[in-house]
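re: ur question from earlier - yeah i can do the single chain one, its not a big deal. heres the input i used so u can compare w yours
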Amino acid sequence: METTPLATLLAFGSIVLALVAVALFVYVMRQRRSRPADTATIERATQQAASSPPPEETSSTPSAKRTGKVVQHSLFVIFSHPDKQTDQRLADWLREKNATFDPIKKVFHIDGEQPSNPITVANAFPPGEMPDLLHDETHAPIKGISLLVKPPLRKRRNQQMHVYVALAKEMQTLFTGDMLDADREPATDTTFERIIG
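and the output i got, formated as tokens:
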């Protein structure tokens, strides 16, 4: 069979194009797989940013709060004497609340009244990363935790905020230590009323 230079050139060109397509496919797939880690990093940065008072929270009109960017409510429970017993009580409390561990973000989620907007339990030191207490993962004693939840877009859907405040008050009585708000000030009944709206 006789080959012409044009046929050879076309065959070679199609092979090169196929290799480029395979390389692009592999690159796109790697980018998609690395995205969950990037999302976890972004969420940790968001949690740290939530520790300073957002401008939407200082507004006095409810409509201004709802039209602004949705932020997370944050409460911090700082343990007075972190040790193995405190960790065990925390693990028992998480089991009692049917909390689930997210191994990618390294936080626990409690469904509450709205599973689509779960309450997040994260480590306060360092921010965000919790050991899997439900499976006895080895770790240093936890010094404190953060309770995080996004407020609802509509005030009539704030059942989750009631659950959030109830969990915070329960933790305040169960664990000895300080409960702080997003401004690192002691949480009071006024703080809870503001969260509920």
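Residues 73-196 form a domain with the Cell Division Protein Zipa; Chain: A, fold (CATH 3.30.1400.10). not sure if urs matches, ping me
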